[in-house]
Amino acid sequence: MLRIAHISDLHIACTPRWEQLNLKRIFGHLNWKLNRCRRHSLKVTERALEKIAADPPDLVILTGDLGQMGLPQEFEKAEDILSPLTRKGIPVFSINGNHDRYGQEPDSDKAFEESRERLALGMKVDESGMLNFPEEGIEIILLNQAQVIPLFKSGGWNGEAAIAKLDSALTDRKTGALRICAGHYPFISPSGIWLPPVCGMRDAEALKDLFIRHQISLYLCGHIHAPFRSTPFDGCLQLCCGSSSITDMVRYIRVDNGAYEIIER
Ligand SMILES: [Fe+2]
């Protein structure tokens, strides 16, 4: 059996240094100070991680928004927060969310990549973004969908090249394994509406076609901070685990109060 813990949208925030400020980050910082800091709490995350570490899964998938403003110091702090898992030898596979990319910032992208490698404890995805567990009959595909986007937008996309690469990798593989994909953006909202490009995936249709062509039957995602599950199209279950740091129990009602979910096969 393979046990996967799914967490998402930690939104770990640090104060930007002067040289890290730009217009988008000024708004991001204000958004944090005036609004989000009251809705996200590290205590919620720490409690969830404690529970996960107490009954260790084989791996953890973190579906984006480790940080709040795409700052290298946020990724560093995230590693520290996640250390109760990594110290126990549980690899954490993280993909980026829109809050992990705040502009054309190679230093920040590099810091995210380096953090990601350390969190995964040296386990690597193959060049099409796949992790294989042949004994358990599971293939996990990790998609990085966060792109450099303008202020006040939160959408992203997979990109033609990434989808084509995955398509050709999956065409050559006839393993009969259960295929699980993880990305930041859900296909559909809790009310069943396809997310528009301004806040969802611009190329959701292309990803849907890929899922259908290659029987990808489970999609783990975040972005929407409320946990919910749905079937965006036949043959695919979408699991959004909600933010693993959210405290706002009025707007975001947690079914299990767990801030994470466990997937077992
Ligand atoms: Fe988020």
Please outline the major beta sheet: 6 strands, mixed
CATH architecture grouping: 4-Layer Sandwich
Structural class: alpha/beta
Q: Please name the fourth-level CATH homologous superfamily.
A: Metallo-dependent phosphatases
Question: In CATH's first tier, which class applies?
Answer: Alpha Beta
Q: Distance between the terminal alpha carbons, to the nearest Å?
A: 5 Å
Measured on Cα atoms, how large is the radius of gyration? 17 Å
- How are helices and strands ordered from N to C? EHHEHHEHEEHEHEEEE
DSSP helix fraction: 25-40%
CATH topology value:
Purple Acid Phosphatase, chain A, domain 2
The overall number of domains is: 1
The best one-word shape is globular
Oligomer: single chain
Q: What is the residue-averaged pLDDT? A: 92
> Regions with pLDDT < 50 over 5+ consecutive residues?
252-257
Summarize the structure.
The chain has 265 residues and is an alpha/beta fold.
Write structural notes for this entry.
The chain is α/β, with parallel strands linked by helices and 265 residues long. The chain has a single domain (3-264), classed as Purple Acid Phosphatase, chain A, domain 2. The chain is 28% helix and 18% strand. The strands form two sheets. A six-stranded mixed β-sheet has the order 4-5-6-7-9-8, with helices on one face. The chain is globular, with a radius of gyration of 17 Å. The model is unreliable at 252-257 (pLDDT under 50). Bound molecules: fe (ii) ion (FE2).
